Amino acid sequence: MEFEEMKTIWDTQNREPLYVINEQALHNRILSKKRAASHITNISELLCIVAMGGTGCFVLGVNLFKQSQSIAMYGLAAWMLACSLYCLVSRVRRIRGNGRFDRSMRGDLQHALAVATYQVRFSQLMRWNILPIAILALLTVWESKKSAWIVLGMLLFFALSYYAGGWEHNIYKARKRELEGLQDKLTNEKQ
């Protein structure tokens, strides 16, 4: 059987030319990745807002209730409340920016890539945020003259948190690279 005959049989069976990208399947894959990225970003933002805001209020309340003179505790409370507010403002900006993308395959891919880029930056920022929180928490413990074992335990906890943050950040970077690769393939295919 000749190649042209095989190609004709294939075309008549599928009603699609040979070597064509199934655009609907590709669009569904892009939409799935966009939904996953948006879902993870929403959870990360809300978790950060609630955790930082709640912890900041708790630390401030404890500090005020005890009428403590710990400047580091006030600094820790202020830092956490400021971080919570920053996360809230960033979330509002991100959600407002969702309308600038059209609802085509290319627009959905650009939207998914924008959300993935935001998530990578957000996770990096929250990873670096561990350092000031650790410093302020350790200063608080040092000011209250607690046991050295508590300080070592806290150092271990913050070191593990920083390591876990790096692991999580690398997952988000890999997802972003996958979307960038998909965008490159789509751009090269159209040319």
Structure overview:
- The mean pLDDT is 85.
- The longest helix is centred in the first third of the chain and has 43 residues, at 23-65.
- By secondary structure, this protein is mainly α.
- It has helices spanning 3-14, 23-65, 71-96, 105-143, 148-190.
- It has one domain.
- It is built from five helices and no strands.
- 85% of the residues lie in helices and 0% in strands.
What's the short story on this structure?
The chain is mainly alpha-helical. It is 85% helix and 0% strand. α3 runs antiparallel to α4 and α4 packs antiparallel against α5.
Question: Which structural category fits the helices and strands?
Answer: mainly alpha
Number of domains: 1
The succession of helices and strands, N to C, reads HHHHH
Q: What would you call the shape?
A: elongated
Helical run tally: 5
Topology:
Blueprint: H1 3-14, H2 23-65, H3 71-96, H4 105-143, H5 148-190
Helix pairs in contact: 2-3, 2-4, 3-4, 4-5
Task: List the main descriptive attributes of the protein structure presented here.
elongated; 5 helices; mainly alpha; 0% strand; single chain; 191 residues
